Amino acid sequence: MIANELRKAYIDFFVERGHAEIPSASLVPENDPSALFTTAGMHPLVPFLKGEPHPSGTRLVNVQKCLRTGDIDGVGDDTHLTFFEMLGNWSLGDYFKQEAIQYSFDFLTTKLGVPTDRLAISVFAGDADAPFDQESYDRWIACGIAPERIAKLGKEDNWWPAGGKNPGPQGPDTEMFYWTGAEPVPKTFDPSDKQWVEIWNDVFMEFDRQTDGTFAPLSQKNVDTGMGLERTTAVLQGKTSVYDTERFTPIIHAIEETSQTAYVTHKRSMRIIADHVRTSVMLVSDGVHPSNKDQGYILRRLIRRAVRQLHQLNDREHGIGSVVDACIETLEPSYPVLQQRQSEIQEVIAHEVAAFEKTLTKGLRAFDKLFASSGYVGGEEAFTLFSTYGFPLELTEELVREKGMGVDKEVFVAQFQKHQDISRSGSEKKFAGGLADHSDESKKLHTATHLLHQALKMVLGDHVAQKGSNITQERLRFDFSHDAKMTDDEKREVEKIVNEQIQKKLPVSFKVLSVDEAKKKNAIGLFEDTYAHIGGKVKVYTIGDAKRGVFSREICGGPHVENTGDLQAFALTKEEASSAGIRRIKAVVGDSARKALSIKNR
Question: Is 526 exposed, middle or buried (0-12, 13-18, 19+ CB in 10 A)?
């Protein structure tokens, strides 16, 4: 079974059982500064796991785009990926353990034809916070799983999030394993045996961990499941590596062609290139551009790591364009928008490659000089290469390792912190569950982004489209499509329009509408990317009313204030380029806005 067949079989199975198919959320979480990327299927659904009604109902299924960079250095082995797809089904206060486990068992054994004797299970063993998961254990026994094939494990293995230390929705889980080794299959399940490969995880969310560490029961019991598409495809095909499946072989072939080298002798390098270019394609498609901060920094790092590996394969021309095309070709059946944005994706990646080529050439030359003069390149020298030439620490480390030495990272970090307070470390912040901030200030800023978006369209033109946003308690950041720097007059006009809507004290409300209804009401939203192809429902926030007129309608998950008057005032604090064709605005509301406006008016 190939990946696209598995994807379809999974969706069809759960739709037949009353689940509504919902679209994948973006790789970039909406208005959630607690995480750089969507790392799991549950991430976009946290408000609904906490009890907010979902527009599509209580039974959901989808394939979620996910990105995890914590193990980025592990990419190159058989299993590690940065971008992957997660098959998931959810029950939001609907069915619970009995049906969830039965669905999982039936899909594996009936739909996929997995023999029961090649399956093993783990369940939560229980501790001081929560009891042994007897119900899940009994259900698996009823399905025909032998007791010796069921392992009872602690929070580090059978609780989500792992360890249960982060605030937010969580609970025990049960995991399904498939025997990938030779016959005969061991009668007893040994979780430490790597030939047992995890293929599915059912999470039973019963608790809401408080910030003080206590566990409170959730208002509703939820089911959140996850099956990695790439890993399960490899298992079903009898492959030991995800890179040997049809999801990657065309990409590997493109790398062989452009580098004129063989995969069999350069597996690690080619896997890194395939993974990193594939992830870069998906990030650019979701509006991320290379930069020195946040998601843009990760994208830059991925592209540059891929270029470095091409360099090691003696591909001095860096024919990465053909690799980009191969990635788009393999993913386009699932994500048609990739073909629509192919030129943009190629342009963004090619621009970063060209910029890094200069860095790579100068940095390598400088490294050789440093090493020749002292016979050593340590933490301070590594920072000099980084700060002067933009030469990545990891590249310096690799070059030094080839000399049989090492780089003192602590010295590098100390120098970095001393001289710069920009950009993140490059590893994503761990998702702690829930939207980052539901405070009143964040709600005000969230509503302000809607006012700003509409005002920009009115002043600059209908070509303006949101390309990203980030909200903290102090300010909003809004990226939008526009080719030119805004003039002072344009900025003043945008401020004026937004403040007028605040003074009018317009009501803010939402309705759950079908895609067709939302389109008829001219709601702002990327229908072609999300709901249109599956006919889902959307949440549309409206600012204004019939009496005073509607100022804005926009697809959004919320939350927002109930009246624009709550914002008090609005002020732009910065307008700058984010990347080619993308501008970035930072703005504040409330007292901060009043102070900023007062200074401007002096």
Answer: middle
